[in-house]
Amino acid sequence: MNRLRKYLIVFFRYGVMAGCAVVSVFVLSSGYESVYSRSLPYVHTVDPVDLTTVAAASDLDLQRAELEKAPTDPKRYGQFGKPTVLKMPGNQANQANLRLDIAEPIPQGGGWLARSTALHAVLPRPAKNGDISLLTLYCRSSFRTINSQSLPAAGANIFVDTDQKWRYVYKVTAARDYRQQDRYVLTSSQSGQQQGKLLIACNDSAKQVTQVIEADLLSVQGAEI
Predict the structure, then answer these.
(1) From residue 100, how far is each of 84, 97, 103, 119 by CA, in Å?
(2) What is the pLDDT of residues 134-154, one digit of tens each?
(3) Where are the domains of the chain?
(4) Strand pairing of 46-49 and 111-115?
(5) Distances from the Cα of 195 to the Cαs of 130, 131, 133, 143, in angstroms?
(6) CA distances from 37 to 91, 132, 168, 195 (A)
(7) How far, in Å, CA of 137 to CA of 85, rounded?
(8) Which of 16, 47, 67, 93 yields a CA-CA distance of 20 to 30 A from 103?
(9) pLDDT, tens only, 60-89
(10) CA atoms within 13 A on the CB side of 28
(11) In CATH, what class is 45-222?
(12) SS3 of 189, please?
């Protein structure tokens, strides 16, 4: 009996040590993904996303090639600063307001990577009249970002705050799910040629759908971040 008890104690101790080792490896791997923007198996802090649905609409392939050579050109941000936070009101299905950080894009291996809790900003076109011309935000679809249940209604306002305490105000013109093989085309305001636009694409790789939100720029206001 005493021998069995000793074996159980030893087994428990080694089990605890093994569990701590697994947790430590996971934490280190997650930190590695966050710091170096690289995707590792089974960690999922940073994962690939499929943006083919909106790639043509927002010139993502061309922009990815540019980003792989150099960071985003600051001139593309215009005169009001770099987008840092998106705020979006809740809809009838999900009343909670959304507040999401906006991070740098992560191009890799001919595709894109996304963090689990943030949007990523791609600016495929030069600024127009001091404003961001086309702001493309992408993410991994989930309850922590944007999914089918949190899509805004047409006519809702979306706010994008910048690091210089300015706020872009956009009005939603379209928001729904698209199959991964569909190809989205900018629909309103002459494809964004006359005013600034916002395009959000959040990919759900498991369901092979992408939530797409399109919005027109209404104004730029002062904001206290």
Answers:
(1) 9, 10, 10, 7
(2) 999 999 999 889 999 999 999
(3) 1-36, 45-222
(4) antiparallel
(5) 11, 9, 7, 31
(6) 32, 25, 28, 33
(7) 11
(8) 93
(9) 877 877 787 677 888 889 999 999 999 998
(10) 6
(11) mainly beta
(12) helix
d(CA 130, CA 162): 14
Bridge pairing between strands 157-162 and 111-115: unpaired
First to last CA, the chain: 65
Where do we find the tokens 């280190």? 28
Q: How many CA atoms lie within 13 A of 92 on its CB side?
A: 2
Pick left, alpha or beta for residue 44 (phi over 0 → left; psi -120 to 50 → alpha; otherwise beta). left
Closest CA to 193 of 96, 91, 125, 109: 125
